[in-house]
Write a structure and sequence with these properties.
With 97 residues, the chain is mainly alpha-helical. It has helices spanning 3-6, 9-19, 24-37, 42-54, 58-71, 76-88. The chain has one domain (3-88): Serine Threonine Protein Phosphatase 5, Tetratricopeptide repeat, CATH 1.25.40.10. It is globular. Helix 3 (24-37) packs antiparallel against helix 4 (42-54), helix 4 runs antiparallel to helix 5 and helix 5 runs antiparallel to helix 6.
């Protein structure tokens, strides 16, 4: 049984999100754990993408964020993160979905 199965998915997502600012590598691992239990969870995908960007892999973040932002165009955070990732890769399109 995985950690995610022993406690609520919401709590796991919240814990992973809290790690982003201070320990993005741990947030990335937590996001992968969540995604193994809930492969289509957009919150975990967003955390994973944000962690990748914070760890210097803006291209990987962009690849994760583009479909997420298209699927949830009214959600501010994926579009914002996409803008940050695109800016970091030199893409002038910013957060345009």
């Amino acid at each position: 049984m995985t950690t995610v199965q022993t406690r609520s998915l919401a709590a796991a997502v919240e814990d992973a999100a809290k790690l982003l600012a201070t320990a993005p590598e741990k947030a990335e691992r937590a996001a992968w754990t969540i995604l193994r239990a809930a492969p289509n969870d957009p919150r975990a995908t967003l955390i994973l993408a944000s962690a990748r960007r914070r760890l210097g892999d803006a291209d990987a973040a962009r690849v994760l964020l583009e479909p997420l932002a298209r699927a949830h165009p009214r959600a501010a955070r994926p579009v914002y993160e996409l803008g940050l990732a695109r800016t970091a890769t030199g893409n002038a399109a910013g957060g345009t979905v």
